[in-house]
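TL;DR need structure tokens for one chain.
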Amino acid sequence: MNAQLRTDAGVDARLRTYDWASLADELDAHGCAMLHDLLSPSECVELARMYADEAHFRSRVVMARHGFGRGEYRYFSYPLPELVSALRSAAYPQLAPIANRWNATMGLAVRYPATHAEFIDRCHAAGQRRPTPLLLQYGTGDYNCLHQDLYGEHVFPLQMAILLSEPGRDFQGGEFVLTEQRPRMQSRAEVVPLRQGCAVLFAVHQRPLQGTRGSYRVNLRHGVSRVRSGQRHTLGIIFHDAE
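>> reply
TL;DR here they are.
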């Protein structure tokens, strides 16, 4: 079934089936949370196949040229593919209340509007007009260094990655890794066991953590460990646009 057509089933309806209170608790506790089976295998295959068609994209980045790791990725151009656009606009309203609560807890003045269209208008008014959803492609020996996806003044503090390939069948290795640096402590690593069609929500930059003397900010980075064999594709959904 074509990935574009399955949006008729309603990405928004799919996302509403998840327990968002529990997901918020996971994000508060660990900085990440999983959405199992968000996309079907056929949708994953259709999205991964888009990588070969330059018409969908505004740019291609070869990671080794920039010291980002090994592998490559392409940023989608506007208009986004229907399924990608639907995921972005439908997930945002579920995440905005969490983002606003996090900012309030961390003493940050920024608040996020109720809809993604309103937030994108804010980005575009500030000169952040380039779309940031992307497809990533890894082959044997490829990896993604720990990083943060910050593209300008306006940053939405949560993002989503969806694994389009099946571990153990399409590739070996290539685990999604999240690290968290707490003040005066060594970094904590989290390995997220994604399967094909599963999504991980995670903090882009900082999140609040409750300590014995109140809340404080912790810094997060994410990446992908070395792919030992095969090929791995991922869809990245970033909610702010780039300068």
